[in-house]
């Protein structure tokens, strides 16, 4: 017991030294990491999140935030294995985190585990929008991800419902139009599918265009636009239409 007490004291002292020597401020680092993540500077977000986690003195909530942030940055950098492991650690701290469950579902979907993704996304949405509480525009992106999981599992009707609801909640969300296009094509309606992906691409060219356009998500939407134009035998290079007003 005395030995472990000495080790704990030593670790606390080392953390204190790190704060002095390296000017570590965990709260500040987490805030700066969040800004870097939103700006698309994923390496910086990962570095600052790691510094806050390992060199700072964070409470349980702070540790959760740091791990979720690190997972988001790792996912953006294409390191799904690390992102999933980090989300597992984060959810061990806060099993009832709706945002964490949605993010883990997104990671599982990217890795091909549509069934596991759908389970996490259903739980996450239920926590963030329990019965009696209306869905908000902020959850439209989560509905898109759940719709893609349902589509991968062949649940066409449910995927279409998620697509329609996401478009209603946020008509200017390009990903919602993309999902609707995927559903329409799977239903054998390629002409309507083309209209929706054209609308999605037009929306993608709006701010923040560069962030979405250069992301794996944006690249997939571009690939799907080309595929739908080929399927409908239209000019591959014609300009995208103006963004829709919403419907």
What can you see in these coordinates?
- The chain has 247 residues and is an all-alpha fold.
- It has two domains: 15-94, Serine Threonine Protein Phosphatase 5, Tetratricopeptide repeat; 136-247, Tetratricopeptide repeat domain (Serine Threonine Protein Phosphatase 5, Tetratricopeptide repeat).
- The protein has 13 helices and no strands.
- The longest helix is centred in the first third of the chain and has 21 residues, at 2-22.
- The radius of gyration is 21 Å and the shape is globular.
- Mean pLDDT is 87; it is low at 17-21.
> What's the rounded overall pLDDT mean?
87
Kindly report how far apart the N and C termini lie. 66 Å
Total beta-strand segments: 0
- What percentage of amino acids are in beta strands? under 5%
Query: Would you identify the CATH architecture of the largest domain?
Result: Alpha Horseshoe
User: Strand count, sense and closure of the main sheet?
Assistant: none
Class of secondary structure makeup: mainly alpha
Q: In one word, what is the shape? A: globular
Query: Helicity level, as a percent range?
Result: over 70%
**SSE order:** HHHHHHHHHHHHH
Give me the number of helical elements. Answer: 13
Q: Give the CATH H-level superfamily of the largest domain.
A: Tetratricopeptide repeat domain
* CATH fold node name of the largest domain: Serine Threonine Protein Phosphatase 5, Tetratricopeptide repeat
Described by its quaternary structure, the protein is single chain
User: How much is the radius of gyration in Å?
Assistant: 21 Å
Reading off the top of the CATH hierarchy, the class of the largest domain is best stated as: Mainly Alpha
Q: pLDDT under 50 segments (min length 5)? A: 17-21
| Whole-number tally of structural domains | 2
